[in-house]
Design goal:
Layout lengths: L2 H14 L47 H10 L4 E3 L14 H10 L3 H4 L38 E4 L3 H14 L2 E5 L14 E5 L6 E7 L17 E7 L4 H9 L3 E2 L13 H4 L7 H4 L6 E7 L5 E4 L5 H6 L9 E8 L1 E2 L3 E9 L3 H13 L1 H6 L3 E6 L3 E9 L3 H18 L3 E10 L2 H9 L10 E10 L6 H17 L6 E6 L4 H4 L10 H4 E11 L5 H21 L17 H6 L3 H11 L27
GO molecular function: FAD binding; oxidoreductase activity
Protein name: FAD-binding PCMH-type domain-containing protein
Pfam family, one: BBE
Length: 611
């Protein structure tokens, strides 16, 4: 499969199939909804005493009989997990099984249903590149790599609680996986026990949800009057959630790819996507979580119960507990207008002019309620923008000047220029996901990213600086990482969202766009060259960090080698978040890559940093 197609697939699956809508006053998530004021949580306690996680080659590792007893407590749902490509290796070679692996290997919908597979295969490899990838089966050995040793295929909350207690009791490295759509590798680890929640699929749309513990509504007290909501179990993906709310003539602010989970790290990390500029980020729409914490207890977490944990889990990322149920506010259904175009040329200087014009129009488009995505490489610029409750005439009026400007430059090719309307958000989402290449997973990938403040776009000097910086980023990136995306999902309701009620990095409220620098490679690339590519991408993305001091990025789509992850991911909230982490997870059961508290652990989160 050509590398360029893979890179495009990453962009589409991560963000570019997302659909966005414009702000509507009656849908403003920042209006007072009757929740109590969110006071800053108490100062963090001292860091607890930590110890190394138990590994399979150590005496502390559970015996086979202990595993068998545990299996009985989860109704036989414990799986001895192996890398998916193992049937293609000797001595485990099986022609029929290997053919099935080869057929499904590069499809995300197949991978999400395999306990030992993840969307991007670099996260299946161990710290020295050891693993079991299909492209190496003819010459290499099949090592377990970072694929978990055991997996619990959870079906109930009891399964989740039993798994958490078992991992806590035996000091095991515990990871939580839904679909494996994870760009930071937080859902897998060497020598780990995996809690797989993908099959917990219940969905309920309710007309008047009231968080547990809220004052009972009455004639005197209307502050906690119920609101429309959708209740989602841990394994639900956004495609299914959108369908469910659409059937009730509602919509919900969620992710932009069909295999992104609704209730895990996506929303806890902020959760941008199709409707963010109109309805707010996912964290702005959370009404309640049900969470299994490190002690195995099931806690109802909202503005009235465990309010500190609720604050932390709205922007502080994963690692505070296992969400088994999330409740999100729903909003009235909208119609959608859509525009797309691709501009290509072998003359890079002409494309640079088109891009400069695109940057200069970002504020105008955002203020008008449009949001969307632009994919850029050395030979083309592809745009896709959306707006709710609008029409084709409005789209032509908004984007016609840019199209005319590009045509006026000459020596440019414009194609795939489309203006269209859709009867609902779900209809547009279905159309966009149908454009995703079928072969879109089973490769290596990495990202660099940065939130670009609105102030950059307010002056000609700022626009010029961004345009010149993006050219430098491309010039200093290796060939496989010269593509980037302008993700226009901030502004509007995101800017109006609360930095007091949520722990989201305040940079989100000041940003207009998120820039993603995309790297991808075939499995045949050597481990040494993979590491070199990642270092080069980090260095290239430094150019964006340099022109946006004090900003940050989206921790779900970020560089796994982010130089200062505490500032870039969490900003001024990190110290308070860490105190809450220590309160609910004092022994680091849920420690994960670049999550809150990971700075107390070594790079693979297996031993305390100063052990």
């Amino acid at each position: 499969m050509p590398l360029s197609l893979f890179q495009l697939a990453i962009l589409i699956s991560a963000t570019l199939i997302a659909l966005v809508a414009a702000a509507a006053p009656d849908l403003d998530p920042t209006k007072n909804s009757g929740r109590p004021d969110q006071r800053p949580p108490p100062p963090p306690p001292s860091t607890p005493r930590l110890k190394c996680k138990c590994q399979p080659n150590q005496p502390c590792w559970p015996t086979p009989s202990t595993w068998a007893t545990f299996n009985a407590t989860v109704s036989g749902r414990l799986i001895a997990t192996t890398p998916v490509a193992r049937p293609c290796y000797r001595p485990s070679y099986n022609a029929t099984a290997c053919a099935a692996v080869q057929q499904g290997y590069h499809y995300e919908t197949w991978r999400q249903q395999q306990p030992g597979a993840f969307q991007y295969t670099n996260w299946e490899l161990g710290p020295n590149g050891q693993g079991c990838l299909l492209n190496r089966s003819s010459t290499g050995s099949c090592d377990q790599g970072a694929v978990p040793v055991y997996t619990v295929k959870a079906a109930t909350v009891d399964d989740v609680q039993a798994t958490v207690r078992f991992a806590h009791q035996h000091n095991l490295k515990l990871v939580v996986k839904n679909t494996g759509h994870d760009l930071l590798g937080r859902s897998t680890a060497v020598g780990s026990l995996s809690l797989w929640v993908f099959f917990m699929k219940k969905i309920q749309v309710v007309d008047a949800f009231v968080p547990e513990g809220a004052p009972i509504p009455s004639e005197e007290n209307t502050t906690t009057k119920g609101v429309g909501a959708v209740v989602l179990e841990a394994g639900v993906v956004w495609m299914d959630a959108y369908k469910a709310v659409d059937e009730h003539n509602r919509t919900v602010s969620g992710g932009g790819a069909q295999t992104v989970g609704t209730s895990g790290g996506f929303c806890q990390s902020g959760g941008h996507g199709p409707l963010s500029p109109s309805l707010g980020l996912c964290v702005d729409n959370v009404l309640q979580y049900k969470v299994v914490t490190a002690d195995g207890a099931l806690r109802v977490v909202n503005a009235y119960q465990h309010a500190d944990l609720f604050w932390a889990m709205r922007g502080g990322g994963p690692g505070f507990g296992v969400v088994v149920e999330a409740v999100y506010r729903t909003h009235p259904a909208v119609t959608m207008s859509y525009f797309q175009v691709m501009v290509s040329s072998e003359d890079r200087s002409l494309l640079a002019k088109v891009l400069r014009e695109l940057y200069a129009r970002q504020i105008e488009w955002s203020n008008a309620g449009w949001a969307g995505y632009a994919t850029v490489n050395r030979n083309y610029v592809a745009l896709a923008y959306m707006r709710p409750n609008s029409d084709v005439a409005s789209a032509r009026k908004t984007f016609g000047p840019l199209v005319a400007y590009a045509r006026g430059l000459g020596n440019l090719t414009l194609e795939q220029e489309i203006y269209s309307d859709f009867p609902s958000y779900y209809a547009l989402f279905l159309n966009m996901t149908s454009l995703v290449p079928e072969i879109n997973a089973g490769f290596g990938s990495t990202l660099g990213s940065r939130l670009i403040p609105r102030t950059i776009f307010e002056t000609d000097q700022g626009v010029d600086k961004l345009a010149n910086t993006m050219l430098q980023v491309q010039d200093e990136s290796p060939p496989s990482t010269d593509r980037y995306a302008i993700v226009s999902v901030a502004g509007g309701a995101v800017a109006r969202g609360s930095s007091k009620e949520t722990s989201l990095h305040p940079a989100w409220r000041k940003a207009l766009v998120l820039v993603l620098v995309v790297g991808g490679w075939e499995e045949s690339l050597s481990w040494k060259d993979q590491l070199k590519l990642q270092r080069t991408l980090t260095k290239a993305t430094d150019k964006l960090r340099a022109i946006t001091p004090g900003s940050g990025t989206y921790l779900n789509e970020a560089d796994p080698n982010e130089p200062n992850f505490k500032q870039s991911f969490y900003g001024p909230n990190y110290k308070t978040l860490k105190g809450i982490k220590n309160k609910y997870d004092p022994k680091g059961l849920f420690v994960c890559r670049l999550c809150v508290g990971s700075d107390d652990w070594n790079r693979d989160e297996m031993c305390p940093r100063h052990h």
